[in-house]
Amino acid sequence: MSFPPLDRALKEWPAAIAALASGQSILLLRKGGIHETQGQFQLATTSVWLLPSFEHQQPEALRVPADAIAHEQPDYLDLSVWAEISQAIALPTDFPLAELSHQTVWSEEFLEQRRQWKPERPLWLLALRTYRVPESQSLPWQASYRGCRSWITLVKPMSRQGSEPVLSDRAFQDQWQAIAEILQRGGLAPNGLSTTALASD
C-alpha cells in the first residue's frame, strides 16, 4: 500500500507513543489543551504522525515505570510511527474509567483528574491503528510546536513510504473488541469515527 507524505502530527507523551509503537495499546484518551479551539479537543484529521511531547509529564500519572519519562525537549525529534484514527468517542461524565485505564499507560487516578478538569468538556477516546516507517526520520524541534494543543503542522511533509502496521489485522481487532466490550458495559455502542468531532483542517 502506498501512503503519501504527511505533515500533520498529534502531540503525545513518549510513554504513550512507545505503547502504541510496540502494540501494547491502541488507545489514547484526550481532553484538549488550553490552546485548543474553544479550549477543548477536536478531531482535526485522522492520519497523523505521533510527535513526542515532553510538556507536563508526570511520573505518578503512568502505570508504566517512571524511567519512561524523559524530561528535556531534544533539539531533534525522531519520527518513526504514525497512525490512522479509527474511532473517536466522547465519553459521558459518569463513564467508569478503571477498565479503560488498563488499556492505556495512564493510571485511573490521572484519567479521573483529567476528566474533572473543566468537566463540561468531554474526555475523548481515540483508537489508533499505528504504522511504523522503515527508518526513523529526524526533524528539528520548532518553537511553533510548543504549547498546550493536540495538533501540529510540521515544517514539511514527511515520507511514509514502506510503512507497515504495528499489529496484524487480527491483533488490532482483538484489542479493539476488548475496548468495545468495556464501552458497551458503560452504556456506549461504538459505531466508528464520530464525524461530529471532525474539524476542518
What is the CATH top level name?
A: Mainly Beta
* Rounded Rg: 16 Å
Number of structurally distinct domains: 1
Number of strands: 7
Spans where pLDDT lies below 50 across 5 or more residues = 194-201
Distance between the termini: 24 Å
How many helices in DSSP terms? 4
Order of helices and strands, N to C?
EHEEEHHEEEH
Structure classification? alpha+beta
Sheet-strand content, in percent, reads: 25-35%
Tell me, rounded to a whole number, the average pLDDT: 83
- Could you say what the CATH architecture is? Roll
Helical residues, percent: 10-25%
- Assembly type of the chains comes to single chain
Q: Sheet bearing the most strands, described?
A: 7 strands, mixed
CATH homology superfamily name: Hypothetical protein
Shape: globular
Here the CATH topology equals Archaeosine Trna-guanine Transglycosylase, Chain: A, domain 4
Entry summary:
This protein has 201 residues and is an alpha+beta fold. The protein has helices at residues 14-22, 98-101, 108-116, 169-185, and strands at 6-12, 27-30, 47-52, 76-91, 123-140, 151-158, 164-165.
